[in-house]
Specification:
Blueprint lengths: L10 E3 L7 E6 L2 E5 L5 E7 L10 E10 L4 E7 L2 E9 L1 E6 L4 E4 L4 E5 L4 E8 L4 E9 L10 E5 L4 E4 L2 E7 L1 E2 L2 E2 L8 E8 L3 E4 L5 E6 L3 E3 L2 E3 L4 E5 L4 E5 L2 E8 L6 E4 L2 E3 L2 H12 L35
Antiparallel strand pairs: 1-26, 2-23, 3-4, 4-5, 5-12, 6-11, 7-10, 7-12, 8-9, 8-11, 10-13, 14-15, 15-18, 16-17, 18-25, 19-24, 20-23, 20-25, 21-22, 21-24, 26-27
The structure holds manganese (II) ion.
Length: 312
């Protein structure tokens, strides 16, 4: 997935240490993806006043759609991408030499670290529906070597009325084997009645409703995100349907996020952009595209400015 907005928003992922439980619904916004014959995705994160949930700093929901996803090679830095399909198939190729099919139920995790490039093309395998999330890397891992992993056998937490497939982190002591760099959680939750999921109170959490569900007593429409803050030990769910739980330790660092880059400051982003435009070695080459790639958009004419979490 690439952030293809012509004038991408500048986001400072800022953690204020608000240590309390809240319940606030956020609406997604429609963003075209993949050029002129684009599919449209619902951008759930970042939100104007909610740049991060734990280390999660980006969440797109797409489909179900018969339109093709055709995203040419583009770069990333300072983050991990999680691709999670509910239906359809995506062909993932990256500059590490990965050339794989992404299928439903299988976690695809790409760690960009100091730099990676990848492409994503849907295949004719029925309507395409899924999520892509980005997790910001902490300071000590931001420049790590790039990596790609697939996890086909993910653990499942089960309790009356609910199952949760754990993509990242842990739910109720059930832990994903995927490589995480911060205390984080991501889980695909299926609700079949009244249910309770255990939460870590030191984490902040949010729930993306994939179907209409009651979450902590709040009716959440499909496609909407309920932000829950920190301080909760459990998540009460009711109804029938699917949701995605995301959370983690509130992210400690200030981050500048622009286009497909996450960095610590303006200069880091300027360098990453210049390196991509120059074809620098740090991003490598994605085989099979004859040099076709997505050019970086122009930087704004001002220093990349912060966007902060709303307080109070
Ligand atoms: Mn991408």
């Amino acid at each position: 997935m690439s952030n293809l907005e012509a004038a991408p928003d500048v986001t400072l992922c800022h953690a204020e240490g608000d240590d309390h439980a809240v319940a606030e619904v956020f609406e997604p916004r429609a963003v075209p993806l993949g050029g002129l014959r684009a599919i449209e995705v619902d951008r759930v994160l970042p939100q104007r006043f909610l740049p991060t949930v734990g280390a999660w700093c980006f969440l797109d929901s797409f489909g179900p759609d018969d339109t093709r996803m055709r995203v040419l090679p583009h770069p990333h830095t300072g983050l991990q991408t999680v691709t999670w399909l509910l239906s359809g198939e995506i062909h993932h190729r990256d500059s590490l030499g990965s050339d794989v099919l992404v299928r439903p139920g299988q976690l695809n995790l790409m760690t960009a670290g100091r730099g990676v490039a990848h492409s994503e093309f849907s295949r004719d395998a029925g309507p395409l529906r899924g999520l892509q999330l980005w997790a910001a890397l902490p300071a000590g891992s931001a420049a790590t070597a790039p990596a790609f992993e697939q996890q086909a056998e993910l653990p499942v937490y089960a309790a009356p009325g609910v199952t949760a497939t754990v993509l990242m982190g842990s739910v109720g002591g059930v832990t994903s084997p995927a490589t995480a760099h911060t205390p984080i959680v991501g889980a695909d939750v299926t609700v079949t009645g009244a249910a309770v999921l255990p939460l870590r109170p030191d984490h902040e959490h949010a729930v993306l409703a994939l179907d209409p569900l009651a979450v902590t007593g709040v009716e959440v429409g499909a496609g909407r995100l309920l932000y829950l803050g920190t301080g909760r030990t459990e998540l009460r769910l009711a109804g029938t349907g699917r949701a995605f739980l995301l959370g983690g330790e509130p992210f400690p660092d200030e981050l500048v996020m622009w286009w497909n880059f996450v960095g610590r400051d303006h200069e880091e982003i300027v360098t990453a952009r210049a390196d991509w435009e120059a074809g620098a070695d740090r991003f490598g080459v994605v085989a099979g595209h004859d040099g076709a790639r997505i050019p970086a958009p122009d930087l704004p004419g001002v220093r990349l400015a912060p966007r902060r979490r709303r307080t109070g």
